[in-house]
Amino acid sequence: MIDIATIAEIVGAGNVVMNESMGKHTTFRTGGNAEYFITPDMDTLKSVIDYLNKEDYPYYVIGNGSNLLVKDSGYKGAIIRITTGFNDCDIQGNAIVAGAGMMLARLSAIACENGLKGMEFASGIPGTLGGAVTMNAGAYGGEMSQVLKYVKVMDSDGNIFTLNADELNLGYRHSIIMEKQMIVLEVCVVLERGDTQEIKNEMNELAAKRKEKQPLEYPSAGSTFKRPEGYFAGKLIMDAGLRGKMHGGAQVSEKHCGFIVNRHNATATDIIELMKEVTDCVYDKFGVKLEPEVRILG
Ligand SMILES: Cc1cc2nc3c(=O)[nH]c(=O)nc-3n(C[C@H](O)[C@H](O)[C@H](O)COP(=O)(O)OP(=O)(O)OC[C@H]3O[C@@H](n4cnc5c(N)ncnc54)[C@H](O)[C@@H]3O)c2cc1C
Fold first, then answer.
1. pLDDT digits over 136-149, tens only?
2. pLDDT, position 1
3. I need a surface site. Which of 89, 142, 148, 154 has the fewest CB within 10 A?
4. Is the pTM of this model over 0.90?
5. Domain final residue pick, 154, 170, 199
6. Are 154 and 247 found together in one domain?
7. Contact present, 7 and 17 (Cβ < 8 Å)
8. Ligand 1: residues whose CB is within 6 Å?
């Protein structure tokens, strides 16, 4: 069993708590508790991992929690949040090397200010750089694989090394980071020279599109399901007659059926059960199996 005093000695007393509600750390704004919730920085992460390994205690790494749902029964382990302690940024010609905890919006803004083009697609994705590499996040024709040069990672034994983009097996919302329980520490993206005003205009246009099409007024984790080959999940769900369908406080968004939203104090169970109803109904009607994009933990 692990001991909070030992972790506090490593990360500082304010950076570890017990029985933390994950509703506070996920954009769904609901979910069970994490037994331990730890926010290390670049200097303390390795000691935390070494300690958890020594005690054989499970852990799970998160960024901004924008693609994550923690079951109401909670997570019996330590959640390690990679955000503010991993925020360094260095511009090297057309490349930016940034900490995995940096938000994509911030990195896109830095790129724009420096006349670097290529991160516009990511400016409205509400996640960290580490989460975006892990998920190979993408939007509006762009995805992380197109700009990524290398990542610095820590493996589950605490070893730190660099992997080039072509070693990450990046696919549609997939990378080897999630398969191998690696932790992204730092990311290098390579961009192109561009005009700051044009880049800004492109980001504003994409933000307006998002606002028009997506239910940003309610908590969610973005697209709930992956895009099945040859189809759009939102269209299948709409054609199955599920627009606005509710289960407890969870709802298939009326604005964009690809999003399940926390409409009114939804529990994680409400969301998971609605996901199941939607999956079953779409399969019965169209024979297409929807796969969750949102990561479910617990
Ligand atoms: C309104 C809204 C719109 C969205 N639009 C898009 C979109 O257009 N395109 C898109 O692709 N996604 C979209 N998303 C989903 C989400 O924002 C992305 O998947 C994002 O990249 C997740 O980053 P995160 O930091 O929040 O990761 P989290 O949700 O915290 O974690 C997601 C996964 O990444 C892993 N992870 C996170 N950080 C690290 C790290 N440092 N090292 C190792 N593993 C890590 C976690 O273990 C987990 O498996 C949207 C979400 C919302 C709420």
1. 999 999 999 999 99
2. 80
3. 89
4. yes
5. 199
6. no
7. no
8. 27, 60-68, 82, 100, 125-128, 130-132, 134-135, 137-139, 177-178, 183-184, 214, 216, 220-222, 295
